[in-house]
Amino acid sequence: MGGGDWPILIDFERLTGKRSFRSVLSSHLTGEDALRVLRRSDEDIERSWVAMTRRVFGEGVPEPVFFEVPRWEDNELQGGAYSNWGAGFSEEHFNLMGQAMSGGRVQFAGEHNSKDYSGFVHGGYLSGVAAANNVLQ
Ligand SMILES: Cc1cc2nc3c(=O)[nH]c(=O)nc-3n(C[C@H](O)[C@H](O)[C@H](O)COP(=O)(O)OP(=O)(O)OC[C@H]3O[C@@H](n4cnc5c(N)ncnc54)[C@H](O)[C@@H]3O)c2cc1C
Questions:
Q1: Residue 104 needs a FRET pair 20 to 30 A away by CA distance; which of 32, 68, 88, 132 works?
Q2: What does the pLDDT look like over 5-38, one tens digit per residue?
Q3: Whose CA is nearest to atom 27 of ligand 1?
Q4: Could you tell me if 31 and 60 lie in one domain?
Q5: Which of 61, 62, 60, 81 shows the shortest CA–CA distance to 70?
């Protein structure tokens, strides 16, 4: 459920059946939708999100105590959420991206260097383990 700017709204308590997730709501925006919404001010985004939750849960939804818009795409050390292999990206590109330099002294690790789990925490972890093992060899 959701609608408008916010096509997806997940109620974690209903999704998991666990009360420990009580009051956890998650909205996901990706690609062009995310860029479109992020072009607006934080206040405007907050207003739009609150209006959507009121359409779903009723006018009793209170004003948020705190609302943060992360804007990872503007963070020069972040550059967005996680890597995405564009059209035409091949296994050869993937292998080049993770290739060690300086005779193995410089290793690259991170979710982008995991073939099976790119975009996930365990992809970053596994590629870190592989890079550490390369250093030890
Ligand atoms: C909204 C969102 C939801 C997600 N949900 C999930 C999920 O449910 N499950 C899951 O498994 N994964 C999820 N992920 C993905 C997960 O967060 C990443 O895959 C993981 O954090 C990647 O780890 P990493 O160590 O490769 O990179 P990062 O965690 O991005 O770490 C890279 C670090 O390098 C730093 N850095 C960059 N450039 C420089 C530089 N030049 N000098 C110094 N430091 C630099 C950055 O600041 C950053 O701290 C999610 C990501 C986002 C954004």
A1: 88
A2: 888 899 999 999 999 888 888 988 888 888 889 9
A3: 110
A4: yes
A5: 81
pLDDT of 2 over the 60 cut? no
Is position 1 within any domain?
A: no
Q: Give the pair of three-digit tokens for residue 52.
A: 């959507």
- What pLDDT digit, counting tens, does each position of 101-117 carry? 998 889 999 999 998 99
Residue count of the chain: 137
Number of structural domains in the chain: 2
C-alpha triplet 133, 111, 86: angle, nearest 5°: 130
Prediction pTM value: 0.77
Structural domain for 18, as ranges: 9-74
Does residue 52 form part of some domain? yes
| 122 CA closest ligand 1 atom index | 11
Would residue 2 count as lying in a domain?
Answer: no
